[in-house]
Amino acid sequence: xxxxxxxxxxxxxxxxxxxxxxxxxxxxxxxxxxxxxxxxxxxxxxxxxxxxxxxxxxxxxxxxxxxxxxxxxxxxxxxxxxxxxxxxxxxxxxxxxxxxxxxxxxxxxxxxxxxxxxxxxxxxxxxxxxxxxxxxxxxxxxxxxxxxxxxxxxxxxxxxxxxxxxxxxxxxxxxxxxxxxxxxxxxxxxxxxxxxxxxxxxxxxxxxxxxxxxxxxxxxxxxxxxxxxxxxxxxxxxxxxxxxxxxxxxxxxxxxxxxxxxxxxxxxxxxxxxxxxxxxxxxxxxxxxxxxxxxxxxxxxxxxxxxxxxxxxxxxxxxxxxxxxxxxxxxxxxxxxxxxxxxxxxxxxxxxxxxxxxxxxxxxxxxxxxxxxxxxxxxxxxxxxxxxxxxxxxxxxxxxxxxxxxxxxxxxxxxxxxxxxxxxxxxxxxxxxxxxxxxxxxxxxxxxxxxxxxxxxxxxxxxxxxxxxxxxxxxxxxxxxxxxxxxxxxxxxxxxxxxxxxxxxxxxxxxxxxxxxxxxxxxxxxxxxxxxxxxxxxxxxxxxxxxxxxxxxxxxxxxxxxxxxxxxxxxxx
Length: 573
Description:
single chain; 573 residues; mainly alpha; 65% helix; globular; disordered N terminus
């Protein structure tokens, strides 16, 4: 069996793990000399002069060619990479990277070059031979070399054809995972990001679960153990890694839940000694609520924690605001009610209700967050029903604030929240709620109208459409959902001014506002045509205007004008 002169020295198992950078460099130089003089080299004619042309004593030509390669426009195919490596073998590049890093621009150029090499299928196929050098790179002082090494691990795992135990064995033999963890915890931002990507790629292998999630807490790589030894920044990075792994699949999320790693997040949130760390942990919890399969795991642990934060007046307002937003996101999911009982959901809504009561006379960010949270909850059918049927109904805060023209940001948040509750963003068959919830909604709207100078719901809606553009946009959303109710349709038809605004193609100037106005117009038209009002002769004019506006479309279409001759006195010279 014929062996390449590179193989006998570069196969990962043949290099002791205690080699220093000097030892590695010496090994590289020796391997290069053997390779260049060996009759087995596939390019023997070029090999006789390569040691003179590309001597490590003068890396100028390597630097120039690597720069051209790294900055080549477009993607590189395997043939281009093979051609480059035939001219500059990997041992030459790696040795130069390790021994000539003091040459200006060389390290950055070679790192960029190697990154492009290893992103290709051919380049990635060479990585197993050089895994020991990847191991050395993960320990390097240079942050960009560490970043390259993390990315190289990712390329190896993503391009490994046979997702078998061999890839994991190579990772274990070279002790790669602990080094990736160290890069994640102690590297700069780019290194930490590259490390988390590599670990996520590793997690795609079922055989890697025992490496990433060891059962023994005393294992050095157990994430709970790692977090206990870290600085506050390191702990947040470990938590972020847990969240990223959690999002990969429900099976990994289950492993994380059963390993009690989510309790690390809860511990940091409860930590009142460092507001920034607590806020970071809440941000990660917010990220968890976006995971499709997260509801079944978060519902079991999160509700009581959020309730305690929202109810705690001594906590920082920014922390309560974030807890409010997380509550809204969590209860906006239709499937959350499969995993949480109704009393728990009502208890959390009650905490928000009480908090809004305390903030009633204040125009603060926390109040807006609370209104947005209720709007998030109201976007689901079950959530909207709970908001309208609780006693007293938590939705009252939204309806009152939505029509307070002095409310500013508070009014805008409330209008969008009301749009969610009335079903503007729900499927057509989910707009109308159950009888008790619908009656509560109608009663709240008429109650607010009777207490205002407008006296009627139609007057309230018209006043919103007469405000600034951002308020009109929210108003269109409210009417789009609300007009599915017959009582609201009758109110709108009683105000010709509302019909004039929603059918006016010149009313809005931005694309999103034009589309919102048009959707509102379509909703009114559809509700009108399916109601008994369509047969009322007194409303035939409204029907015509709505029909014409729907046919016209959302955007302003200028009517075609014929060219007309212009008669003028000729200029005389």
